[in-house]
């Protein structure tokens, strides 16, 4: 930015940018927290990316979706979250309008990709459980890569089109209250439908069906083991409870992070929305990218093995890509 600190102060006064009302210690702690969240998001997703890309055993169709989710979440952590958290701390947009446009395009694009990655994971898990034989024949690594590529291309095209026709509705002058894209009522509802309601409906519906199918399978296993030792029956029950718990956590955390923001978007069409509150809910939305590595990776046994190999630098050994991590 080609302007001095004095010019920034004058501009802030002109735009009535709120003054900092917190002590220096709290201010420093906020910035340390910002750095910690960004670092956790980037490093957590980077571990997944390295694991899936490096180890040959993890080159499966299902893991390509996890890789795509990790890439989108890692980019959110690196490109979107720093600006959003900085805006919340400063309560003031400190950059040019052109940067505002780039920031919004990146944020909307990566968020929609992340949401649809979760939806595709739900579709993949349901298909694999509902008809495993057809899944093995129909779903290959190359086809899954095409699906992932289409997800990214369609999301980018949609968000480019959305922003291109609404450049005049961007707020984001230097030291303004914030950087937002203002849509009319119709487009707001359409965007809400495409980026939240539809993928969430798919996720909730399919995960519910997955739980039902898993419960039927567990019941069938218990029936087969009735004549055998009670230990196997207890293991089956424990596995069923664990599956239900994981699915519940997946859906609950996803909706907890996304639901408040999109509900607020609907209310914003009808009532005047406080930009400060809007920013906080937006950050909650982005925090889903921080939590995703924990939920979608730590429940997999192979991830812990991969992390140990990566941290100990064993991945630099000869033929380390062929190590058994499953």
UniProtKB/TrEMBL annotation:
A GO CC annotation given for this chain: plasma membrane
Q: Where is the G-protein coupled receptors family 1 profile domain?
A: 44-296
Question: Does the record carry Membrane as a key word?
Answer: yes
Q: What is its main location?
A: membrane
Quote one Gene Ontology molecular function term: trace-amine receptor activity
InterPro entries associated with the record: GPCR_Rhodpsn (IPR000276), GPCR_Rhodpsn_7TM (IPR017452), TAAR (IPR050569)
Transmembrane region positions? 28-52, 64-86, 98-121, 193-214, 246-271, 283-303
What kind of membrane protein is this, topologically? Multi-pass membrane protein
Location relative to the cell: Cell membrane
Q: Which UniProt keywords apply?
A: Cell membrane, G-protein coupled receptor, Membrane, Receptor, Transducer, Transmembrane, Transmembrane helix
Question: Into which family does the record put it?
Answer: Belongs to the G-protein coupled receptor 1 family.
Q: What protein am I looking at?
A: G-protein coupled receptors family 1 profile domain-containing protein
